[in-house]
């Protein structure tokens, strides 16, 4: 079976995930001089259905510095758009099964970023797209963010908290929804982070208005991982309650699953989505809210942040912000992922 990176925060055991965190931090300390040949001669194909700054630049930079080659394919114009059978259009799309088999005969891995509009906003459709690639590919498939998971971001997040807090067992993390003028953000980041954090032994408070609950399957899995790791999960619908005494505050916006379509071709209930967002404009991280957290607590965000909406400038640019260390760790987390998949011996 081909080793993939579709949802390791859901499928990898807590012990294996913690070992990967350790390996990623060690790999970072050796980068770049002692890792420059780790992926020499390896080729990865990158397909971005969505805009990307950190994911695109960090993957390509890291692969290049390790001696590999990145080939970026535009799936919505540069090539025939890979599609599942129900979405095929003659001479405009090409079946995912065919694309996966061809690319995996050329290179060493396929990395895909897809969520939202390219999948019709049907929750889970983008993840099924990646699963189809994985089914037909003979090389690893890397999830660079889908509509369910963002495992590369979560690994960078946990690495950052390890660097800032030391051991994570018993540390308190608040994952909070925050207001944005756009509803177009998937639930991938909070879901992967929740799973990764409890595997690392953190006590997690998930704070969000009632309409912004996460996928029940993810919540159930997180509860099981928490029990195995001796961690705790608490849900609150009060922002200030969620932040109180937290060692790390990770607040960002995400869409309401209740207002997404359930069938391909149906539309998002945008009126209901916007009305739900506007009712909760006060869910914002500012200096007063951060003062409720534990002394020396840090603020995290995956970026891009909607400044003045999700978070104020004095927080994201202030001394409690771990955001840019977190962004820098995307490079190192993904280097570890690529090495884990293509040359695991170099992680030792």
From TrEMBL:
Keywords on record: Transferase
GO biological process, one term: citrulline biosynthetic process
Gene3D superfamilies hit by this protein: Aspartate/ornithine carbamoyltransferase
SUPFAM superfamilies reported for this sequence: Aspartate/ornithine carbamoyltransferase
Aspartate/ornithine carbamoyltransferase Asp/Orn-binding domain span: 189-340
Membrane-spanning segments: none
GO molecular function: amino acid binding; ornithine carbamoyltransferase activity
Domain of life: Bacteria
Domain Aspartate/ornithine carbamoyltransferase carbamoyl-P binding as annotated: residue spans: 12-163
Xref: PANTHER family: ORNITHINE CARBAMOYLTRANSFERASE, MITOCHONDRIAL, ORNITHINE TRANSCARBAMYLASE, MITOCHONDRIAL
Biological function: Reversibly catalyzes the transfer of the carbamoyl group from carbamoyl phosphate (CP) to the N(epsilon) atom of ornithine (ORN) to produce L-citrulline.
Family: Belongs to the aspartate/ornithine carbamoyltransferase superfamily.
Name by which UniProt lists this protein: Aspartate/ornithine carbamoyltransferase, Asp/Orn-binding region
């Amino acid at each position: 079976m081909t080793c993939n990176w579709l949802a390791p925060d859901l499928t990898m055991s807590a012990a294996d995930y913690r070992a990967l965190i350790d390996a990623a931090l060690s790999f970072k300390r050796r980068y770049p001089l002692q890792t420059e040949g780790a992926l020499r001669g390896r080729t990865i194909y990158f397909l971005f259905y969505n805009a990307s700054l950190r994911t695109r630049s960090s993957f390509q930079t890291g692969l290049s510095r390790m001696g590999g080659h990145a080939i970026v394919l535009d799936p919505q114009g540069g090539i025939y758009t890979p599609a599942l059978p129900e979405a095929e259009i003659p001479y405009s799309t090409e079946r995912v099964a065919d694309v996966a088999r061809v690319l995996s005969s050329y290179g060493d891995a396929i990395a895909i970023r897809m969520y939202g509009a390219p999948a019709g906003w049907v929750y889970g459709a983008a993840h099924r797209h990646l699963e189809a690639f994985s089914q037909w590919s003979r090389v690893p498939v890397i999830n660079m963010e889908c509509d369910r998971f963002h495992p590369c971001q979560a690994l960078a997040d946990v690495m950052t908290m390890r660097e800032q807090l030391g051991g994570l067992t018993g540390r308190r993390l608040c994952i909070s929804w925050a207001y944005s003028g756009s509803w177009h953000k998937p639930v991938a980041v909070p879901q992967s982070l929740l799973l990764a954090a409890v595997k690392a032994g953190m006590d997690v408070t998930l704070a969000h208005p009632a309409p912004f609950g996460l996928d029940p399957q993810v919540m159930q899995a997180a509860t099981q991982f928490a029990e195995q790791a001796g961690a705790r999960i608490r849900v609150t619908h009060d922002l200030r309650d969620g932040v109180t005494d937290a060692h790390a505050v990770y607040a960002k916006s995400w869409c309401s699953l209740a207002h997404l379509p359930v069938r391909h071709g149906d539309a998002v209930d945008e009126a209901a989505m916007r009305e739900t967002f506007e009712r909760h404009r006060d869910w914002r991280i500012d200096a007063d809210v951060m003062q409720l957290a534990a002394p020396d607590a840090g603020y995290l965000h995956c970026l891009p942040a909607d400044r003045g909406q999700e978070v104020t400038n004095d927080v994201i640019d202030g001394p409690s912000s771990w955001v840019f260390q977190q962004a820098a760790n995307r490079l190192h987390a993904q280097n570890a992922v690529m090495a884990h998949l293509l040359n695991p011996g170099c992680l030792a």
